[in-house]
Structures are given as C-alpha cells and as structure tokens.
Design brief:
The complex is a heterodimer. Chain A is α+β, with helices and mostly antiparallel strands. Helices cover about 20% and strands about 25% of the residues of chain A. Chain A has a domain of about 120 residues: Rieske [2Fe-2S] iron-sulphur domain (Rieske Iron-sulfur Protein, 3-layer Sandwich), CATH 2.102.10.10. The longest helix of chain A has 26 residues. Chain A starts with 13 loop residues before the first helix and ends with a strand. Chain B folds into 2 domains: about 300 residues, Cytochrome Bc1 Complex, Chain C, CATH 1.20.810; about 140 residues, no CATH class. In chain B, about 60% of the residues lie in helices and about 5% in strands. Chain B contains 19 helices and 5 strands. In chain B, strand 4 and strand 5 form a beta hairpin. In chain B, helix 7 packs across helix 12, helix 8 packs antiparallel against helix 14 and helix 16 crosses helix 19. Classes of the chains: A alpha+beta, B mainly alpha. At the A-B interface, helix 3 of A face helix 9 and helix 13 of B.
C-alpha cells in the first residue's frame, strides 16, 4: 500500500487519508461525489427536466396572439334612441343601449353568473337570464336567481358627431361609479 | 357432377398454410386445452382468464354493463372516425358540415345519430356499471384502485360528451360550452372570477378558462381545442385507462363473486366470450334501430350574442345546471363535482365493512347502500327538475303549465347572514353560528355513544320542525306549502345525515368517520339549500361580498 494505487475505487475515501502525507507522486483520485449521490443528482435532473417540460407544455397552451373582434363600436346617433332599453345592438354587439331622461348608459348583455345573454322583459321591467334564471333590474342589479353581482356597464361616449361610441373592453358595475363618466354619457336633446 | 361438400371445403381452408399462418393452434377438437388455447393464443381475448366462476358470468350479477360500455366505446370510435372525414372544425364550416352530413352525405345522418345516441347510451351504461359494482361491494379490497380508475373513466366519459357537443357549432354547443368554461373561470385561485383568483393576479387572459378557450371568448381556438381533445387527446387517455381497468380486473381474480361449495369453474371460451359478443351485437342493433327511428338534435347555428330561451344542457348535465341555480359557480361547478369524484374514489378506503363482497347485500351494508343510492337518486331528481320542470327564463313550470304563459317575476331573494340580511354581522354572527352548527352536526353522531332510537329521534325532530312551521304560519311568514317543504327537506337531511350515521358509523375511526361525514353533510347541504331557495327565496345562508364568500 505504499504506492498510490492507480485505481483506488473500492474505498476511495480512505486512500488519501492514509497515504497522502507520506508519498503521493500523482494526486490521489478523490471522487467529489459518491455513486449514490451521483444517482440522486441524476434523478433530480430528470425530475427537473420533467417539471420544465410540464411547465413549457402548459405555457404552450396560452396563445400569445389571439384574433378576436374589436370591443369598440359606433352605436349610431344618440338622437335616434327613445327612452328606455333599446335591444337593436344585441344580436351584433351584445349590448343594450339604455336612455334615461338625462343621458345614456350601455349595458353589456352578459349574465354575471355564467355568461349567457339575458332577455329584456319590458312588461316586468326586468332582464331575465335563460340559463339559470337570474333576474336583474333596469339598472342591472340582481333581484333574483344565482347571479353574484350586477350586470356590467360599458364605457360610452358621445362623439362630436352626435354618435354614441361604446367600448366593451372598459367595464364597471359598482353603484356610485357606474352612474358617472365614462360609463354614463350625458345627453339632453336641444 | 361434383358435389359441393362444405365440410371438405372448410377443412381445406383451415388446413391451408394461409389460415394456419394467421390463426395459431392445431386441429380444433373442443377439448379444455383447445378452449384455453383460444383465449391465451388470441391477442384480443388474452386479457380474459381461461376459466371463471359461473356466478361471475350471470347477467343478474353483472348486468353486462361494463362490457356494453366498452362495446359502445368501440362503436363511438368507429362512427367518430367516419364522421371526421366530413367535418372541418372552423366556425365558418363546422355547422355547414354537420348540415351536409345530415342532408348531403350518404348515411351521414344515420352515422351522426349513431354517434350521438351511442354517447348518451354510454353515459347511462357507465353509470349503471358503477351502481352495480357498488351494490355488489366489488370495489372492496383488493379492487380499490380499479374502482378509482372506473371513477376516472366515468368522469372522462362525461368530459368526452362535453367536448363533443361543441363540435356541431349550434346554439346548444356554444352556450353549453360558454357556461362550462365560465365555471372553470370560477375555480378558486385558478380562475379570474373565482375566490382569491384576482388576488393572485388572474385575469380574463391568463387564467384556466383562457387555456380552455384559447382566447377570452368561445371562438375559433375553442372549437379547435375541443376538437383535438374530443377526437385525439381524451380517447387516448380513456384507452390507456381502459387497458389498466381490464388488466386489473384480470389480476384481481376477475370477479368479486365469492366461491361456493363444490363450485366448478367453467371455460371462458365459449361461455363468457359468447355473452360478450351477444351483448355487443344487441348493443349495436339497439343503437342502429334508435338511429333509424330518431334523429340527433341540431339547433340553430351558434350565435355568440343571443341565448335560446330556455337554454339547457344535454340531459346528463342538467342536474349540474340545476345545482348551479342554488349555489355559486365555484361551489356547484368546481367544488361539488370535485367532491363527488374524490368522494367516489375514497369510498373503498373509508368503507371498512368486510361484508357484502360480491353479492347484493342490502341488510349487511345498510349505510353504504342507502347513502350511495340517495346520491344517485338525487342526481337523477335534479336532472328531472332541470329537464322537465324548468321553462322560459329557467322559471319553475309544473308539467301541466304551458310554457307560453309568462310566469310572474320571481320574488326578490335575500340572505340570512349578510350586509342586508337578518343577521347583519355576517362575520361576527354568521360564521360562529354556522360553524357551531356544522361542528355539532359533524361530531355529535360519534360523540353520542349509545344508539338513538330512530323512531323517537325522528319523531322529536319532526315535532320541533312542525312546531316551528306552525309558528311561522301563524305569524304569516310561511304557507302550508312552505311548511311541507321545510318538513320534507329537513326531515330527509336529518334522517340520512344524522340518524343513519349515528346508528351505523359512529364506531369508525376518526379519520374515516370525519371523511364520511364531510361527504354526507355536503350531500345534505344540497337538500337544505334547495329548500331554502325554493320555499323561502334565500339566496345565501352567509355572504361576505368583499371576498366573494357566498354559501
């Protein structure tokens, strides 16, 4: 054992301790890692690879570019609307234009429960949803059924041309905020 | 003139090199060895055991529902692949292609009908299979894991139906998927409208709903995603789980039916295989006849802005739709289905009753059978209500009432504990009161160590409720119908949720007892909430709007 064994594999840890100070012509081969640790590192890398693959696959499912229609539209001349709920944009834009004595608000026709389109029942003065039976007042507040919050109102502006410009990307449903600009457009016919 | 000898021809064919190269084995002498070889030497049949106990093959024991479900799965695969030849999953073409299948493609209507009806039949047969396996206790050790696989297969059967009915791009399709994906959007934490969702940064364009839709609204990407899931991804997963399911049946000694004295096993070929072929043939004939007699529904082309009135899910999801009337979407759409799936998978691990394995045992397993069947009956009762008793605006219409008569507007709802409820301090009053009541319900059946007299306990409970109802009526707070509702729903909840657990499971260890009680109380909460809404217009028992906590 006086010579440094060329292959100290069987008990690598002991060899340098016993021999190193005396005579070591070549640096002793001291493995930095035991066989077990090496295997564990391998498993850890495999697990990391799996996790990274899973994360990347999940990320893959989120599209970076989506092709969806603009949420902004021109709802026509403000002067063309009568008092009350107008449903003429429902089929195309999913919006009710509501005219009050002082101006306009635009209600997004999406039930806040699970996203169906309610119908306006003028004789009962209510919006009623056909999917789970939620009922809303003219202002959009829930009076019956499972919906958790009031209907959303969209941003509405009166353009200098007299047109109403509605933007469904900007929404509000809190009392106190929804009655003011930009969710309410003042309008008084000349 | 040479005579036509069929036997000689048959022998010539079977002994030919070609035939022998395809079908292994020597001359068929119908010995037990031949019959065993037929199972072992055939790749399609070799998941079968060679022999089985006669009881395991009886129709009255198996109902044949597992095999029929698999036959339907094969039928659906074949009809589905064929339909794919004429269908393009884009918004502009999908509906037109379905119309073409119906009116311009030879046999297109028939194949679409067959696909739709087989799918509905498969939902029924898989549920029936589960009920049979439950009632015969065939999920108990060592079959717990295979029962879990079965529950996943049931879930995936329903998910295949769900992804399938978006594809025609009709009104049913778009609104069912709108509602379904909005439910995903109400998932706690992972959905932008769910509790805590906004808190962790979920928005309409980065939550779980967004990945399902491939956008912020049901559109082109959604159709493509559901198409891929329906035609490729989910069937693959189902196929893998089916292999596992069959493999475990084989390994777990094929059937739970217990040995009987002097019982002799019989050959699977031909006794079982014959029945399987017969079941598959009858299933095919049944679907064919149904598809000739009735056409699959197709509504108007999808309109993403206007919903049909009323809008209803396919029948097997109408129960869930009805549940959504009573509970917030994250409870009815996420927590409850999750609890049903997890609860079903947990059953073999919480049911420690060693009796009733492999035979119908109403007397030996009163609690398990009663509660399970209560759940099944409730599921179908909800389906009945949603399917038959809901009319325009999803209002309640009795069968004798015309849908053309507009119902009076429903009365305003209110909350018991909430900012404007009876108890205005929902945090300080509602949470302790409801928490105490739930804890008492959860713990009392186990803490009362002596078995209560069922008749007396029920009598006392119903007496108190009746007194309460009479008091309410005298004060003009409720009428006789509301009183009857109150008696029925609270009585049922008390019997199934308190008296029965007290009688049967109070001796379980705490972990199993608590798990069981959580599932039982969740089930009863459906009954109680239905009563509260239908009879008393209660929207929430407790509401804390600031954190979207509504129960």
């Amino acid at each position: 054992m006086s010579e440094a064994t060329p292959n100290p594999a069987p008990e690598p840890a002991k060899v340098p301790a016993a021999v190193a100070p005396a005579a070591a012509p070549k640096p002793a081969v001291k493995p930095d890692m035991s066989r077990g640790d090496f295997l564990w590192a391998g498993w850890a890398m495999l697990a990391a690879f799996g996790a990274a693959t899973a994360a990347a696959s999940a990320r893959f499912m989120f599209p970076n570019v989506i092709y969806e229609p603009s949420q902004k539209f021109n709802a026509g001349k403000a002067s063309s609307y009568d008092l009350g709920v107008d449903t003429k944009w429902l089929n195309e834009q999913r919006v009710w234009i509501v005219r009050t004595p002082t101006g306009f608000y635009a209600m997004w026709a999406r039930c806040t429960h699970l996203g169906c389109t309610p119908n306006w029942w003028g004789d009962q003065n209510r919006f009623k949803c056909p999917c789970h039976g939620s009922n809303y007042t003219l202002g959009g507040d829930v009076i019956a059924g499972p919906a958790p919050m009031p209907l959303w109102r969209a941003k509405v502006e009166l353009a200098p041309t007299g047109d109403l410009i509605v933007d469904k990307a900007i929404l509000e449903n809190k009392p106190g905020k929804r009655e003011n600009a930009p969710f309410f457009a003042n309008y008084s016919p000349a | 003139m040479p005579t036509l000898d069929l036997e000689t021809i048959k022998k010539e064919i079977i002994d030919s090199q070609l035939w022998r190269s395809v079908f292994r084995g020597g001359v068929w002498k119908d010995t037990p060895r031949d019959r065993a070889g037929h199972i072992i030497g055939n790749v399609w049949l070799h998941l079968h055991p060679v022999k089985a106990r006669p009881r395991a093959l009886e129709w009255a024991y198996t109902w044949g529902m597992g095999g029929i479900s698999f036959a339907l799965y094969l039928l659906l695969t074949i009809t589905g692949v064929v339909l794919m030849f004429y269908y393009r999953p884009t918004i502009g073409l999908a509906y037109r292609d379905i119309k073409d299948l119906e009116f311009a493609v030879t046999l297109g209507m028939f194949l679409r009908n067959a696909h739709r009806w087989a799918a509905q039949a498969m939902v029924v047969s898989v549920i029936a299979h589960m009920v049979r396996v439950f009632l015969t206790g065939a999920y108990k050790k060592p079959r717990e894991f295979n029962w879990g696989i079965g529950v996943l297969l049931l879930t995936l059967t329903l998910f295949l139906s769900f992804t399938g009915y978006l594809l025609p791009w009709d009104q049913l399709a778009i609104w069912a998927v709108t509602v379904g994906t909005n439910m995903a959007g109400a998932t706690p934490v992972l959905g932008n409208e769910g509790p805590l969702g906004a808190l962790v940064g979920m928005r309409i364009n980065n939550d779980v709903r967004f990945t399902l839709l491939g956008g912020t609204m049901v559109g082109e990407n959604t159709l493509l995603r559901f198409y891929v899931m329906h035609c490729v991804a989910v069937p693959l997963v189902v196929g893998i789980l089916l292999i596992l399911h069959f493999w475990r049946i084989r390994k777990d000694s094929f059937s739970a039916a217990p040995y009987q004295a002097n019982e002799e096993k019989i050959d699977v070929w031909p006794h079982l295989v014959k029945k399987e072929y017969f079941g598959a043939a009858m299933t095919t004939v049944f679907i064919m006849v149904w598809s000739i007699l009735q056409n699959a529904p197709l509504e108007a082309i999808a309109n993403p802005n206007v919903t049909t009135n009323p809008s209803k899910a396919p029948w097997y999801f109408v129960g869930l739709q009805e549940l959504l009337v009573y509970f917030d979407p994250w409870i009815a759409g996420v927590v409850m289905p999750g609890l049903i799936i997890v609860g079903l998978i947990a059953i073999p691990y919480i049911d420690t009753n060693p009796k009733g394995i492999g035979y119908y045992a109403w007397k030996e397993r009163p609690f398990a059978n009663t509660l399970f069947m209560l759940g099944v009956v409730m599921w179908f009762a909800l389906i009945y209500i949603g399917y038959a008793l809901r009319g325009p605006n999803y209002a309640w219409y009795w069968p004798w009432e015309s849908w053309y008569m507009l119902k009076a507007a429903p009365p305003p709802t209110w909350s018991v504990f909430g900012p404007t409820g009876v108890g205005k301090f929902s945090m300080f009053l509602g949470i302790p009161l409801i928490g105490a009541a739930s804890a008492a319900w959860l713990l009392l059946p186990k803490l009362i160590q002596k078995e209560l007299d069922g008749l007396k306990t029920m009598g006392a409970f119903l007496g108190v409720i009746a007194l309460f109802a009479v008091g309410g009526m005298a004060m003009g707070k409720m009428g006789p119908i509301e009183g009857a509702f109150l008696l029925f729903f609270t009585g049922a909840s008390f019997y199934f949720g308190f008296v029965l657990p007290q009688r049967h499971i109070r001796t379980l260890d705490w972990a199993r007892y608590l798990t069981t009680m959580v599932l039982v109380i969740s089930t009863m909460s459906v009954l109680l909430k239905m009563c509260a809404r239908l009879a008393f217009n209660i929207k929430y028992v407790l509401t804390i709007p600031s954190i979207s906590m509504n129960i």
